[in-house]
Every structure is written in C-alpha cells, then in structure tokens.
Amino acid sequence: MKPIETSSRPRSAVVRAALCDEIADALAALWEQRRPNDEAMHQVRKDLKRARAALRLLRDAVGEAAYAQENVELRDAARPFAGVRDAAVALGVLRELLRTEKKPARRALLREVRRSLHEERLHERHKLLRDWKLAGLESALHDAGARAEYWRFPLDDAPVLRTGFERVYRKGRKALKQACSEGSTQSLHESRKQVKYLQQAAAIAARGGSRRLKKLAKRAESVADRLGEDHDLAAVQARLAAFPGRTKAERKLIARIEARRARLQKKALRQARRLYRKKPTAFLEQVLPG
C-alpha cells in the first residue's frame, strides 16, 4: 500500500484515494501478465479486499445505495480468483504436513489429497482463463474506480469515519463472541474475516501517520494470520474426512491436524479477546480521538 499525503483534504478523500489505489494495484497485477499466476491472483484478491475495507469506512459518507453497489462490484470481481487461491493455499498446507510426516501410509494419503488439489487448481485456472472473465473484471474495476472519483465529502467528515470504524469493530466483537461460544469452523472463519476487516481498516486509517492505528493493525493481523492458518488446516481436514471408510492413517492425520488447530485457536482467541476487550465507545476514543 502506498502512503498518502493528507494535506488539508477531508479524511474521507484520503480513504477514497486508498480505495482507488487498491483498485489500480489490482488492475496492474492483472495487466502484468495476460495469464496471471497464483501469486498475481492472490495479489488481486488482497488488493480488492483492502479496497472493500476502505469502502466500509466510507459507508456513511457515500450513502447506502452507492455502498451497496460498489461492495457487490468489488466482491464479485474477487470471487473468480477464490477457487485457484484456495487450492494453492491448501497445497501449501499439504507441503508442510508432508515435510514433517514420516509414516509411509500417511505420506501416501497426503500425496493423494495433493494430487486431487493440484487437478482442482488447474481446472479453476483453466475455467477462469477460458471464460474470458479477466476482460470483464478489468472493465468492472475501471468503472468502480471512475465512480469513486465523483464522490464528494464534507470538510467535517470525522463523524462518518468514526461510525464506519465503530461498525467494523462491533461486528468483530460479535463474531468473536460467537466463535468463543461455538468453536465451529464456520464461526472461527467468520471471526477471522471480521478481524481482517479491522486490520485493513486500521492500516488504511493509519496512512495519516497514527502510531496507535499502526499498532492496532499489526495486532489484528497476528490474530487473522493464526485464524487463517486454522481455516486452511480445516479445509485439508475436511478433505481427509471425506475419504470413504476411515483407515488408521486417516484417523492419525486428522488427529494431528485437530491438535494443531486447537493450539492455533487457543492462541488466536486469547489474542482476539485482548484486541476486542474495550467497548466500542472506549475503543474509538483510544484509536480515533477527537
């Protein structure tokens, strides 16, 4: 992400500039090569997620209609890359499991899952490139960036940005509470998404130089990384559990993954509880005073 010169512009305009920069970066990743590799696809997804984080902060500034339109556009632009990226991430998890697994039967099972995921990744890539979706995505992103340039903001826009930040924080607290009570893969993944939204919002708002927001972004990123690793392991675990029957090797691998997930969850949720320990009003006064 590029630093932004704030000068005397409304802070909403600074956040809008961040949104447009992320869209431009996503387009640059697509233009760099006409058949983008996994890394480029991952970069596009990250850029568009950060663009949506900026949009969340501007929700009250641009109005519900504009927010709803742009949120759907950016979400839909990122979706075609999800299958390729998810398969690539799962392959990385399998490489790590294979690196530390010594038992031949378990290694054979992991290699079988790896073959399946590799075929899935190639299929998703072929589907994305074959259907000419990239051209449509580029056009949609161009249009979204152009529309954002016409947004107008009041000079005293601090209240709307605070409202946007508070909304992100409240949703994160709610998702964490549910994850702690349920402990399900779905609730943990939702908590991870909300923590990531907070991290991205803090990183964007910190472009004006706020050390508190930079520290908040770093803490949130640590939580999101651990919950993200847990989610990746859960995806591999689900594939193993889907095999017909249940061999000893499968049971041992699943138990190993479950133990690793339990450690990750314990650390992540402990960090997350500290991250969300303040009530929203007190939190805002700390990170966005005035």
Topology summary:
Blueprint: H1 11-31, H2 38-57, H3 59-62, H4 64-78, H5 82-100, H6 104-130, H7 133-149, H8 158-182, H9 185-205, H10 211-241, H11 248-275, H12 280-287
Number of strands: 0
Overall geometry: flat
- Mean of all residue-level pLDDT scores: 87
Order of helices and strands: HHHHHHHHHHHH
Q: What distance lies between the first and last C-alpha atoms, to the nearest angstrom? A: 26 Å
**Strand percent estimate:** under 5%
Polypeptide structure, described:
- There is one protein chain.
- This protein is mainly α.
- Helices cover 81% and strands 0% of the residues.
- It has twelve helices and no strands.
Fill in the keyword field for this structure.
about 290 residues; mainly alpha; 12 helices; disordered N terminus
What is this structure, in a nutshell?
The chain is mainly α. The chain has helices at residues 11-31, 38-57, 59-62, 64-78, 82-100, 104-130, 133-149, 158-182, 185-205, 211-241, 248-275, 280-287.
